[in-house]
Every structure is written in C-alpha cells, then in structure tokens.
Amino acid sequence: MKEKKILICDDDHGILEMLEMVLEEDGYQVVVEAKSINALNRIAEESPDLILLDIWMPVITGDQILSQLRADHTKSNIPVLMYSASTDGKLIAEKYGANGFIAKPFDLEDLLHKVSGLLI
C-alpha cells in the first residue's frame, strides 16, 4: 500500500516539528511548509493526500489558501484539516470548506483519529 503523504503548513516551527514527528511515527510521509506564501506551490509540487493547515499565519492566512484550493478544480478534492487556537477557528474552517477542524493545543489521539478518518 502506498504511504499517504501529508503536507503541513504552519508558520510555527515547533508545531511543524511536533506534527511531523507524530505523523511520521504513525506511518505517514510528511512534507512541511513554514511559509504560507509558498503553500499553494508546494501543494501543486507534492500532490498530498491530506493538508494540515493553520488558520492564522502571516502574509496569507489558512482560510485564503483554502479558498484558492477550493476554487482550483485540480486541487479542490484534497481533504484539508484546519487547526487554530482561535475561538472562532471551527466556524472559519466550516465557512471555507475544510473537511475538519481541530483546536490547539492538540489532543494527539484526536488529531491522529481525524487524520486517519480523512485518508480512508
């Protein structure tokens, strides 16, 4: 079976490292992108099976990235799990068409459960 590829976009290097470690331990191939401005190009290059996307990032926010993804018919079907510490993060994720949302700080078991559910 092909190893599933997950692209994580977050400007916080600590969160990127933690998510990369946890997801690789769970058997996923992980690609990280710290600069939101590069996210759409990386998604095009990597063709991930799932995208983990922080909502609040400098330059381009996660909801702006998701809006552009959903408008591009070649990428609109990629599942996106958004996350944020913001109290309105879930509403933002739903409004822009995310496939799921998880609040920070993460419950890692919940995160892994949502990731595996989106990759079925």
UniProtKB/TrEMBL annotation:
Q: Which GO terms describe its biological process?
A: phosphorelay signal transduction system
Record-linked SUPFAM superfamilies:
CheY-like
Write out the entry's keywords from A to Z. Answer: Phosphoprotein
Response regulatory domain location is 5-119
**Residue numbers of 4-aspartylphosphate PTMs:** 54
Q: Give me the segments passing through the membrane.
A: none
Q: Which InterPro entries does the entry mention?
A: Bact_response_regulator, CheY-like_superfamily, Sig_transdc_resp-reg_receiver
Note the Pfam families from the entry: Response_reg
Descriptive protein name: Response regulator receiver domain-containing protein
Q: Which organism is this protein's natural source?
A: Pedobacter westerhofensis
